[in-house]
């Protein structure tokens, strides 16, 4: 006989699929014991660089019950962003996740729809939606709920679909049927470690965020240190190297989310076009894009750093 926990979990997973999510896994809302010392060590090593926000809400990052009163379940969801086509070969590069509209808005709308569905179908359920901007260790929760394992490049990897997807959560105050973690399938592979242009993967499963090209091109507000000249492999916003070389990403399939369709100019621009980009063109191409995070001046700084 199917109990309510199983029935509700099945309902949530079916609706998440209907909303376009790649997959959905559920885990018990509890303290992340294994991650606590890892996060502490990572911060103590200053691997967060100038991302001081990573030091905030340490306890909340490790315990979802501090984010939602009476939290019992963490529902983790993946949304594919792998594009149909990529940029012109003779171009400064943008991370694939930023090709289309800003994922925060796209996913948040889907999550709100899912939460509304849960409240309509199950009744009085209290919960919150999270997309990357709150103190939630999303990769840890996704791994706990069986959606993949955290690879040597510190990204969540999944056997059948690779790693080109966003991770989001719903934290709910009802008990559900929980999924089991999967096993690590990195084996002896070191492709990501060997390929990282700035050697940011300092040991298997540990990334020094302050050496990552994504950090320099998005998070860092100061000038990019000269020691990294000619080491950026033409990345002007983000970096996909450790994902592009991962053998599991040969299974990536193009997404079917209309909001992630890139502006044609983004795909067709060459280096000269980017070097001559004006503020108006920047606003047009990246109207609703995550690239706006670095602002026009930030993108120009990055291009100049690559060009010199």
Description:
This is Epoxyqueuosine reductase. Its cofactor is cob(II)alamin; [4Fe-4S] cluster. [4Fe-4S] cluster 2 binds at residues 196, 212, 239, 242. By secondary structure, the chain is α+β, with helices and mostly antiparallel strands. The chain folds into two domains: 4-86 and 94-172, NADH Oxidase, CATH 3.40.109; 191-239 and 261-307, no CATH class. 33% of the residues lie in helices and 13% in strands. A four-stranded antiparallel beta sheet has the order 1-2-7-4, sandwiched between helices. Strand 5 and strand 6 (156-157) form a beta hairpin. Helix 1 (4-18) packs antiparallel against helix 4 (103-122).
Write the layout of secondary structure elements.
Elements: H1 4-18, E1 23-28, H2 35-44, H3 58-62, E2 73-80, E3 93-94, H4 103-122, E4 127-130, H5 138-144, E5 149-150, E6 156-157, E7 165-172, H6 191-195, E8 201-203, E9 206-207, H7 213-219, E10 235-237, H8 241-244, H9 264-268, H10 271-275, H11 279-285, H12 295-307
Helix pairs in contact: 1-4
CATH architecture of the largest domain: 3-Layer(aba) Sandwich
- Mean pLDDT equals 95
N-to-C series of helices and strands: HEHHEEHEHEEEHEEHEHHHHH
**Spatial ordering of strands, largest sheet:** 1-2-7-4
Q: What share of the residues does DSSP label as strand, in percent?
A: 5-15%
Beginning-to-end CA distance, first to last residue: 68 Å
Strand-pairing-aware structural class: alpha+beta
Low-pLDDT regions:
none
The number of distinct β-strands equals: 10
Q: What is the overall silhouette?
A: globular
Q: What count of structural domains?
A: 2
Q: How would you characterize the largest beta sheet?
A: 4 strands, antiparallel
Cofactor: cob(II)alamin; [4Fe-4S] cluster
Subcellular location: Cytoplasm
Binding site for [4Fe-4S] cluster 1: 186, 189, 192, 246
Binding site for cob(II)alamin: 61, 132, 153, 156, 167, 214, 239-240
């Amino acid at each position: 006989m199917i109990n309510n926990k199983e029935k509700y979990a099945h309902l949530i997973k079916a609706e998440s699929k209907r909303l376009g999510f790649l997959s959905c896994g559920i885990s018990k809302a509890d303290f992340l014991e294994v991650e606590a010392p890892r996060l502490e060590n990572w911060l103590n090593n200053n691997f967060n660089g100038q991302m001081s926000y990573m030091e905030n809400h340490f306890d909340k990052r490790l315990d979802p019950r501090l984010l939602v009163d009476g939290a019992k379940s963490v529902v983790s969801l993946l949304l594919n962003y792998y594009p149909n086509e990529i940029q012109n070969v003779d171009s400064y590069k943008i991370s694939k996740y930023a090709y289309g509209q800003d994922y925060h808005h796209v996913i948040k709308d889907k999550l709100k729809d899912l939460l509304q569905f849960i409240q309509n179908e199950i009744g009085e359920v209290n919960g919150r939606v999270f997309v990357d901007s709150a103190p939630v260790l999303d990769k840890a929760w996704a791994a706990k709920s069986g959606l993949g394992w955290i690879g040597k490049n510190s990204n969540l990897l999944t056997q059948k679909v690779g790693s080109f997807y966003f991770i989001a959560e719903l934290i709910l105050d009802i008990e559900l049927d929980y999924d089991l973690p999967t096993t690590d399938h990195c084996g002896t592979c070191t492709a990501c470690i060997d390929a990282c242009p700035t050697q940011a993967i300092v040991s298997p499963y540990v990334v020094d965020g302050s050496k990552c090209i994504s950090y320099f091109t998005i998070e860092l507000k100061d000038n990019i240190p000269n020691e990294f000249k000619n080491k950026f492999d033409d990345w002007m916003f983000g970096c996909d190297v450790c994902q592009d070389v991962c053998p599991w990403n040969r299974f990536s399939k193009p997404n079917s989310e209309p909001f992630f369709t890139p502006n044609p100019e983004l795909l067709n621009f060459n280096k000269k076009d980017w070097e001559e980009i004006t503020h108006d063109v920047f606003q047009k191409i990246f109207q609703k894009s995550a690239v706006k995070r670095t602002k026009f001046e930030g993108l120009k700084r990055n291009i100049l750093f690559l060009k010199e």
